[in-house]
Design a protein that fits this description.
mainly alpha, Four Helix Bundle (Hemerythrin (Met), subunit A), elongated, 5 helices
């Protein structure tokens, strides 16, 4: 097998069946909607304070700690929403399931477990080794 053949084989992109395309579209859309609803609920309910609720310093401290935790959680969810939007964009451009690092297929099982994945398992393991 010549050098050109290897390049051609590596450039093959996983083409999702219509069933899998619909599955990932629905899964990502539902996950996004759930996260957006949670963020809206946080703004409407969890971040509001009723007058007289903060009678003493300990109450204020507890509320501020809970609020800080909730905001950190929502920030993580905001980042996940961005990843979901990027995955939906890749899905619409028929680039979904292709490793951004090496170009190989990510694999259906990995995508089912983490549909926002952008790296195949080998590249992800290499990345984690470099980070540790």
């Amino acid at each position: 097998m010549g050098k050109d053949s290897v390049v051609m084989v590596r450039c093959l992109v996983m083409k999702l069946s219509e069933k899998n395309h619909t599955y990932f579209l629905q899964k990502l859309s539902k996950q996004r909607a759930k996260l957006v609803k949670g963020a809206s609920d946080t703004i409407a309910n969890d971040l509001s304070v009723i007058d007289g609720e903060l009678a003493d310093t300990i109450d204020r401290s507890t509320v501020e700690t809970e609020r800080s935790f909730m905001l950190r959680l929502r920030e993580r969810e905001r980042k996940l929403i961005n990843k979901i939007d990027e995955a939906l964009s890749r899905l619409n451009k028929d680039e979904f399931g292709q490793c951004e690092e090496c170009g190989d297929n990510i694999g259906l099982e990995r995508l089912k477990a983490r549909p926002v994945a952008t790296l195949c398992i080998n590249c992800k393991e290499d990345e984690e080794k470099r980070e540790s």
